[in-house]
Amino acid sequence: MAYLLTLLWIIVAVLVSLGAGWCFRAFLISVSSQNMAKVFRTAPLTASFGLLVIAIYTSCAVFAPLIAPYGEAEILSYGFEPWSSDYWLGTDNLGRDVFTRLIYGARNTVGIAFLITALAFIFGTIIGIYAALKGGFIDQLLSRLIDVLMAIPSLIFSLLMLTIFGTNVISLVLVIATIDSTRVFRIARAVALNIVQLDYIEAAKLRGENTLYLIIREILPNALAPLAAEFGLRFCFVFLMISALSFMGLGLQPPSADWGSMVRDNADLISFGDITPLIPAGAIALLTIAVNFVVDWMLHRASGLKD
Amino acid sequence: MTKAIPTKAKTKTPAKAKAKAPAKAKPKQGDILLQMRNIHIKGKSDESWIDIINGIDLDLYRGEVLGLIGESGAGKSTLGLAAMGFCRDGCKITDGSISFDGMDLMQMDKSSLRELRGKRIAYVAQSAAASFNPAHKLLDQFCEAPLVHDVMSRNDASQYAIDLYDRMNLPSPETFGLRYPHEVSGGQLQRAMTAMALSCRPDLIIFDEPTTALDVTTQIEVLAAIKDIVKEFNTAAIYISHDLAVVAQMADRIKVLLKGDEVEQAPTEIMLKKPSQEYTKSLWAVREHTRKEQPAVKNQTPVISIKSVTAGYHSSVDVLRDVSFDIHKRRTVAVVGESGSGKSTTARVVTGLLPPRMGSIEFQGETLPAQYQSRSREQLRHIQMIYQMADTALNPKLRIRDLIARPAKMYLGLTGKALDDRVRDLLHMIEMEPDQFIDRLPSELSGGQKQRIGIARAIAAEPTVIICDEVTSALDQLVAEGILKLLDRLQSELDLSYMFITHDLATVRAIADEVVVMKDGDVVEQGIKSKMFKPPHHPYTELLLGSVPEMDSKWLDRLLDSRGKDNLGDAAIAKMNKKS
Predict the structure, then answer these.
(1) In this complex, is the C-beta atom of A134 within 8 Å of any C-beta atom belonging to chain B?
(2) A208–chain B Cβ distance below 8 A for any pair
(3) Is A209's CB within 8 Å of B47's CB?
(4) Alpha-carbon distance B568 to B572, whole Å?
(5) Number of folded domains in chain A?
(6) pLDDT tier for residue B453 given thresholds of 50, 70 and 90
């Protein structure tokens, strides 16, 4: 019976999400311009659900102080209060409101993950395309250098770097961005290799264009679709990486709220049958799934398949 | 051809050649094989469905060859595939009936259709290189269909393959099937594909532009092989092509399509002599364009002078050997040859993409740096290039405005209003309405329009010489004609010189002043056009000239009679090499 009930809940949850996706898509179509509306009309329900989740997370991150009932680091009561009308999701080990910290966590974790991914992409893409364009010795040098960096397991490498440079936000961003840009380099180079042999690149070279123009105007716009799709995936990985580092105490430092460290701090509660520590974990999982739904849709669009 | 094993087919060959002519006079032999009625096919474009075929009827009798002719976008291939009850992704047959040998293909389920395809209806695609699986040997791919359809045992199938390879005049048929697709030439691969289509002895074969991607000399081999085999097996065929002269050789009856509608249909002889529709006449007229030859120039510094250039890509092999010729002001030099003859490599040397090992390029008397990186901007500006594939030559993410404006901005320093005016002028010059096209992306243009943009980009730099690399070979005849006329006009307006690379002798006749014939990296013959098209020829030039299909349905038969079946294409070249 319990098994059937769980199944029923899962079905209801899926239907509700798809319904929400459908409503959100209808909303997007009605508010956006004609061209964009055409794009959204082709979006499957999963993708529009993903967009909805991303929109909710983004607004949480942007308007955190307005939405959250208490301050981020405010100590309100004794630790581990149960769920109540005052504290919707109870309080954590130090007596801070979990719901508030969940909302601020969106700002810290998602914001930093976005920054890291953006940096990794700018860096990785430009170097990758440059290597593909120049070829020969420069390509070999850069590629082998990146290979060396990729050969070291990323978590261990980042732990090492963070212990060397200290655990502050700036070094966290730079270290993870550097490590992640190696993966982006690989993709950007592979995509660009196919583009640099096309005639329009040859035509531009013969025109006497400089390297920067070639990278930015001629190659990058044509490599954008696969890179954008990769951006979504990378974003998820960075997200998980920060959470993993936070869980080990090397990520964002207290008292900033962060979903990874929230799981660690309140992990004790699980032994008492309380699911509160799983909620930030669930928030991570939901965003990961949402981003992947959107990425799948973008990949499908980029591939040009018609059904 | 050294160790051709004697088979039954071999002994039959001479008798068959003679029997050909009378069979042609009476095309409608046997009973009806394929009947398509009122076919409507729609294709999905963005959100809406657009018509690709609007109600075409098609009848095909056993042993008959039907030619389908039309420009790209006429629906030839779509109609051809529909004859198998098949539609490409994003298309659907909305109306009409297809009956093949009494069976209604529209009503059949997928598994019985699959049973039919490959076994009783076969398809030969345009690009054999893209249609073979590169990971399997030719023979294994040949045997697949007979085994799947349970027609023959593996041993019988390979025996049959060897037999067919032999009849197709493929070299050492015993071992030919043991090679991988990349180990044989393009013409051989296309014949191997035709052999594969015959593997289950189908009643109907659909040939979709089987020789379009081939050189003229190779094309003949394939045409001869197809013609032979179709007659012998009494197989019905639908032959799709945009090349009228080719279809004239193959088909008993020709159907002309235009934008999904049938224009007319008639037996080949009648169609060639007196087509009834205006559109068909315009197609026929295309090959008649020639321009007046300008006299040879003497005692004048050539614009471009290629001085005994030897070049190659890697260390060992020379792709070009001691190539020299001049390009004079306001003259068009056509560089002719088959693929692999070094035409495009010559262009790469001239542009500086490939530094020559020996020799040099002179521009108006002064030697140019060998590499484009070391040439000045001014030197780069004078030599512009137009590419064969306009699709890949234009950045798909840039608007027409930016594509054309870039060279004008870079070289001539135009900005703002002056630049905009210049772009509009250029669009006028290539006969495209600026307001309509200036903000479009290349993907929103047709093939011919894209090529025009390529031309506009080249002339925007105000060059002295333009290298045209097979600029018309990817285009339909009517469109190509327009491009040639445009180039002609621009030449006289802007005092341009062209180096015109092509493998198509009809184009040479239309546009050239001087001709350079290349073969395997050597210049075989060069001179002014009128001389080149008059005998005596170098044997290779003669082979090229003789291989161009003529608008006469008996041309191929005559050629085969005079040259003999074993003396076409590769074989003829090999023989010629031995002599010289």
Answers:
(1) no
(2) yes
(3) no
(4) 5
(5) 1
(6) very high
User: Using CA of residue A149, residue A153, residue A159, residue A160, what is the dihedral sign?
Assistant: negative
Q: CA angle, corner A296, sides to A295 and A298, nearest 5? A: 60
Does the predicted interface ipTM exceed a cut of 0.85? Answer: no
The answer to whether the Cβ–Cβ distance between A38 and B457 falls below 8 Å is no
Taking CA–CA distances from B90, the nearest residue in chain A reads A306
What is the residue-wise DSSP string for A94-162? TS-BHHHHHHHHIIIIIHHHHHHHHHHHHHHHHHHHHHHHH-HHHHHHHHHHHHHHHHS-HHHHHHHHH
Q: Is residue A117 part of a domain?
A: yes
Name the residue among B46, B89, B351 with its Cβ closest to that of A206. Answer: B351
Query: What is the predicted pLDDT for the residue at A147?
Result: 94
Q: Which residues neighbour B157 within 8 Å (Cβ) at sequence distance 6 or greater?
A: B142, B143, B146, B147, B151, B199
Would you say residue A33 lies in a domain? no
Note the pTM of the prediction, 2 decimals: 0.77
Does B304-548 match B8-21+33-288 at the fold level?
Answer: yes
| Residue A38 forms contact with B (CB below 8 Å) | yes
Residues 324-343 of B with CB under 8 A from A: none
Q: Which of B380, B394, B407 sits opposite A200 (nearest CB)?
A: B394
Q: Which helix (H) or strand (E) holds A67?
A: helix A64-67
Q: Give the closest residue to B45 by CA, choosing from B443, B447, B474, B475.
A: B443
| Cβ-based contacts of A306 with chain B (< 8 Å) | 44, 89-90
CB B325 within 8 A of CB B333: yes
Of A44-53, B59-68, B550-559, give the lowest mean pLDDT range.
B550-559
In terms of Cβ atoms closer than 10 Å to its own Cβ (0-12, 13-18, 19+), residue B542 is middle
When CB atoms are compared, the residue of A202, A206, A221 closest to B380 is A206
Closest A-chain CA to B457: A203
Q: How far apart are CA B530 and CA B509, in angstroms?
A: 9
Domain limits for position A195: 54-301
Residue among B78, B74, B193, B175 at smallest CA distance from B126? B193
Is residue A49 assigned to a domain?
no
Q: What span, in angstroms and rounded, lies between the C-alpha atoms of A43 and A51?
A: 10
Choose the closest CB to B392 out of A200, A204, A205: A200
Q: Name the one residue in this structure whose structure tokens are 């798809």.
A: A18
Give the type of residue at B509. R
Token pair for B316: 């060992």
What gap in Å lies between CA B531 and CA B463, rounded to an integer?
29
A216, two tokens: 């930015």
Smallest Cβ–Cβ distance between A200 and the set B47, B377, B393 belongs to B393
Assigned fold of B304-548: Rossmann fold (3.40.50)
Give the distance from residue B438's alpha carbon to the nearest chain A alpha carbon, in angstroms.
18
CATH of the domain at A154: 1.10.3720.10
Residues of B numbered 12-51 whose beta carbons fall under 8 angstroms of chain A's beta carbons: which are they? 44, 46-47
pLDDT digits (tens, 9 = 90+) for A161-204: 998 998 888 999 999 999 999 999 999 999 999 999 888 999 99
| B222 Cα to chain A: minimum distance (Å) | 30
Establish if A271 belongs to a structural domain. yes
**B393 neighbourhood in chain A, CB within 8 Å:** 198-200, 203
Partner B contacted by A275 (CB < 8 A): no
Residue indicated by tokens 């190696």: A182
Fold designation for B8-21+33-288 = Rossmann fold (3.40.50)
